[in-house]
Amino acid sequence: MTPKHGQLIYEGKAKRIYETDLDNRVLIEFKNDATAFNALKHEEFEGKGRINCEISAHLFEVLEKAGVPTHYLSREDDCWMLAKHVEIIPLEVVVRNIATGSLCKETPIEQGKELIPPLLDYYFKDDNLGDPLLSEARLERLGVISKKKKLEVEKLSSQINILLKAFFKQLDLTIVDFKLEFGIDKNGQILLSDEISPDTCRIWDQRNSDDKARILDKDRFRKDLGGLVNAYGEVLKRIQGLSSKPHNCS
Ligand code: TMP
Ligand code: ASP
C-alpha cells in the first residue's frame, strides 16, 4: 500500500523522494529500476524495490544502534521509508576493502587484492559529468564540504565500514566495497543518508567460491549475469535469519 505522501521532491535512478505532512520528514520510495554506466543500461526488476528498502532499513537500524547518525526513521511499507529531510552533500563516498570494479580498470592494482587500510574515494555526484573521481585538490577547490565536515565524513565512513564488515561476516558474506552519501539536517548535523543495499554495495557469498556465482549485488546486472532478484533476496534472507535467531548476550 502506498503511504499518504505530498509532492515529489526528487526522482533519482532508483528512488523517489516525497514531501510529507510532518515537519522535516520525507518519504522515500525504492523503485524496481536498475541502471548502470550512468543509466546507459536500464531494466526493471519486480521485487527489487521492496528487497532494497528492507535491507537498507535493517542496515540503518544496525548502524544507528552502534551510534552512527542516519536519516532513517522507519520502514512504512514494502518499498517506502520515512526519513529525516537532509540537504545531500553532492559527493559519493566509496569505501573499498577488496580491489575490483573501477579501481582495477583505472589502476594496475590486482583484482581481488585486500586493501589494507581500506581505500576511500570521493566522486562528485553529478550525472551530467558522469560522477567523476575527485582528487583531494579538486575536492577542496569545489568547496562542497568544509574541512571539518570532511573529517567527520571520513571518521563515520571508517566506522561504518568496521560495522558493516562485522555484520556481513556473521552472514557468511563479504562486503567488498560500497558507496555512501551523507546529508546535513536542519541542525547542521551530518547524517548518513540515501540507501545501503546490493545496488550500492558489492557483496560476495563466502559459501560459494565461484567468482560469478558468489556475486550477490548489482554486478549481476552490470555484467549480465542474471539472477539479480534471487541474489538480493539471498542477502535479505540471511539478514532476516539473523534477526530471528536468539540473541547471544555474552
Ligand atoms: P566502482 O568500482 O564502479 O567505482 O564502484 C564502487 C562501489 O560503489 C560499488 O560498491 C558500487 C557502488 N556504486 C554506486 O553505488 N553507484 C555508482 O554510481 C557507482 C559507479 C558505484
Ligand atoms: N548507479 C549508476 C548508474 O546508473 C552506476 C552503477 O551503479 O554502476 O548510472
Task: Explain how this protein is built.
By secondary structure, this protein is of the alpha+beta class. It folds into two domains: 8-84, Phosphorylase Kinase, domain 1, CATH 3.30.200; 87-227, ATP-grasp fold, B domain (D-amino Acid Aminotransferase, Chain A, domain 1). 30% of the residues lie in helices and 30% in strands. The chain is built from six helices and 13 strands. It has helices at 48-65, 101-106, 136-142, 147-169, 219-222, 228-244, and strands at 8-11, 15-19, 25-30, 33-36, 41-44, 72-77, 80-84, 87-88, 91-98, 114-124, 173-184, 190-193, 201-205. Strands 8, 9, 10, 11, 12 and 13 form a six-stranded antiparallel β-sheet that branches. A five-stranded antiparallel β-sheet has the order 1-2-3-7-6. Strand 6 and strand 7 (80-84) form a beta hairpin. Helix 1 (48-65) packs parallel to helix 6 (228-244). The termini are far apart. The structure holds thymidine-5'-phosphate and aspartic acid. Thymidine-5'-phosphate is lined by residues 94, 101-103, 131, 177-179, 200-202.
Blueprint (SSEs and pairs):
Blueprint: E1 8-11, E2 15-19, E3 25-30, E4 33-36, E5 41-44, H1 48-65, E6 72-77, E7 80-84, E8 87-88, E9 91-98, H2 101-106, E10 114-124, H3 136-142, H4 147-169, E11 173-184, E12 190-193, E13 201-205, H5 219-222, H6 228-244
Antiparallel strand pairs: 1-2, 2-3, 3-7, 4-5, 6-7, 8-11, 9-10, 9-11, 11-12, 11-13
Residues 13, 35-36, 38-39, 218, 222 line the site of aspartic acid (ASP).
Keywords:
single chain, 250 residues, alpha+beta, six-stranded antiparallel sheet, 30% helix, binds thymidine-5'-phosphate, binds aspartic acid
